[in-house]
Amino acid sequence: MRKGLSLFNLSSLVLGFTFLYLPIVLLVIYSFNASRLVTVWAGFSTEWYWKLLENDQLLDAAWVTLRVAFISATVATVLGTMGAIALTRYGRFPGRMLFSGMIYAPLVMPEVITGLSLLLLFVAVNFDRGFWTITLAHITFTMCFVSVVVQSRLVTFDRSLEEAALDLGCPPLKTFFIITLPIILPAVVSGWMLAFTLSLDDLVIASFTTGPGATTLPMRIYSQVRLGVTPEINAVCTILIAIVTVVVVIASVVTKRQEMERQRAERLAAAG
Amino acid sequence: MARQTRGRWLVIAVPYLWLLALFLVPFFIVFKISLSQDAIAQPPYEPVFDLAAGWEAVRGALEQLNFDNYSYVLSWDNEFLLAYASSLKIAAISTVLLLLVGYPVAYGMARAPKSIRPTLLMLVILPFWTSFLIRVYAWIGILSPEGLLNQLLMALGVIDEPLELLATDTAVYIGIVYSYLPFMILPLYSALEKMDETLLEAAADLGCPPFAAFWKITWPLSLPGVFAGCLLCFIPAVGEFVIPDLLGGSDTLMIGKSLWTEFSVNRSWTVSSAVAVLLLLVLVVPIVFYQNVQTRQMEGR
Questions:
Q1: Distance between CA atoms of A245 and B126, rounded to whole angstroms?
Q2: Least confidently predicted of A121-135, A142-156, A220-234
Q3: Residue of B nearest to A246 (CA)
Q4: Bridge partners, B45 (sequence order)
Q5: Contacts with B194 from chain A: Cβ below 8 Å
Q6: Measured in whole angstroms, how far is the alpha carbon of residue A89 from the centre of its chain?
Q7: Homologous superfamily, domain A56-271
Q8: Where are the domains of chain A?
Q9: Which residues of A216-248 are buried (b: 16+ CB within 10 A; e: fewer)?
Q10: CB–CB contact A229 B290 (8 Å)
Q11: Nearest-Cα residue of chain A relative to residue B231
């Protein structure tokens, strides 16, 4: 009965999205500024992007960050998916309360606490700090995000498919790989991407758990940002924003197409 | 059947043990170190529990533990108590602001035509995927004295000289509201989207004015989303470090910043541990509340 949006709804949407996007858009625009002064526009230039290629420190940090993010997101996805299955499929088991507590708490735990506590753990067990301690720390906090994303998919899907496979004598592991996993795959993939970007983004936990020789990109950016706004940092940020935007848009288009195909297949199955 | 049970236990045990070792155990270590004393050594605290040194040594170490760090943190001579209070205040005010900004946006999204809702949802999620640090950094360029906002206002003739915005509490509020907005919008949207619109039509047919209908129907039905959104923003905001550090001034007191300074500038691991334990105590009630909301939502579906 209602057509379109009321004036109030439309203006709150416009204002809300302007607020969300304007700062990012301005940052991107000013990364193409020819002037070193970030606040004065002096014409279009890609100078700062070329300068980045000569900045070895920044490139090293980017490489460390990407490796940490890739390894930690992958391990976190496996652990987080297992955790999600345990919580949604296995009913009650001893210590379930504690387990679900440990899955949800890291989502809201202030990063300074997580970072400090992991550092003190690594010191207590005498583990050399550096690349691997950052990776272990990132696995720990990102697996909880993966678990929540996968759980929300697991609770909505039709369990009778799994039960049918099990009743027909399919072993549980095989059932998981040929029935469950394909259905929850979009959630698993977005869990991986979430873990990857959270790891890519993390400053506080990485700063606590790092050691000599392992500096991540956010740590490098942070130490420069404290000195003020520079066009080089704007350029780094723009590249990161561009990567994330492309990946998220592609992923959401792919998921949407899969979803539509699945619905069509279900309709066909129901009709036939 | 035996194999099936074993596989089942494995699926539970692997993530369980991981979280026990890397999430729960570290808290006990933090607690233990908060009862120790600083020392010029490696690691920089004592006593160090050395199980190899035998039971006597462990008991000796236990006797050295005391609450000195807590009386230091809880003393009015130091700024920690003020920092806890100020963090709670800043987080609470920011949460209210977030609700005021986020609710109309979530409401608009939920009432938008079905065909554009997924796009709107993606537009809310997208900034959330972009680096937190970058989004905070973007505001430095806007709020600084020669920044874009001051330039704009001066060009419009609203002000004659630049406003002092950066390095104030106002900048911290702007930063928190901006960075946490997706966390507020998403739970609100999922609550509002599920709402049955015919309820509002029925109210309108029975002569209920729109605002009263909102207050009596929409608002109560959206409360789970309101709780989830507020907790999701409030709890991490209390311990926020990056925003007060980059946007706040030297007089902006927040406990996350105090903890960081205590750790990296004063290099006192024992005092920062005590600060962390007390921060956790402050947050335990909202965290448990949040977990209940989460569990109920997961099981309610």
A1: 7
A2: A220-234
A3: B126
A4: B38
A5: none
A6: 25
A7: MetI-like (1.10.3720.10)
A8: 56-271
A9: bbbbbbbebbeeebebbbbbbbbebbeebeeeb
A10: no
A11: A108
Sort out which chain A residues have CB atoms less than 8 A from B241's CB and list them: 110-112, 204
Question: How high is the pLDDT of residue B49?
Answer: 67
Q: In chain B, which residues have their Cβ closer than 8 Å to the Cβ of A156?
A: 301
The CATH code for residues B78-300 is 1.10.3720.10
Chain B neighbors of A87, CB-CB under 8 A: 298
Q: Which 3 state secondary structure label does DSSP give A33?
A: strand
From A213's Cα to the closest Cα of chain B, the distance in A is: 18
Flag if A19 and B181 touch (Cβ within 8 Å).
Answer: yes
The whole-number average pLDDT for the span A246-266 is 78
Q: Taking CA atoms, what residue in B is nearest to A248?
A: B126
Largest CA distance in chain A: 71
* Whether B111 and A137 lie within 8 Å, measured CB to CB: no
Q: Provide the 10 A C-beta neighbour count for residue A98.
A: 13
Map tokens 């006593």 to a residue. Answer: B47
CA–CA separation, B151 and B174 (whole Å)? 18
Could A104 and B107 be called an inter-chain contact, meaning their C-beta atoms sit closer than 8 Å?
no
Chain A residues closer than 8 Å to B132 by CB? 201, 203
A101 and B291 in contact by Cβ < 8 A? yes
CB contact under 8 A, B43 and A249: no
Cα angle, residue B139 at apex, residues B134 and B140 outer, rounded to 5°:
95
Write the pLDDT tens digit of every residue in A151-198. 888 887 778 888 888 889 888 888 888 888 988 888 898 899 889 988
**Residue from A1, A77, A111, A116 to probe the interface with B (highest B Cβ count within 10 Å):** A116
Averaged pLDDT for residues A17-44:
83
Residue-level pLDDT at A233: 84
Which residues in chain A have their CB less than 8 angstroms from residue B107's CB?
9, 12
Chain B residue with the nearest C-alpha to that of A85: B11
Q: Hey, where are the domains in chain B?
A: 78-300
The pLDDT tens digits for B138-147 are 898 888 887 8
Are the Cβ atoms of A244 and B279 closer than 8 angstroms?
Answer: no
Give the Cα separation of A37 and B97 in Å (integer): 33
Question: Per the CB < 8 Å rule, is A13 touching B108?
Answer: yes
pTM above 0.95, yes or no: no
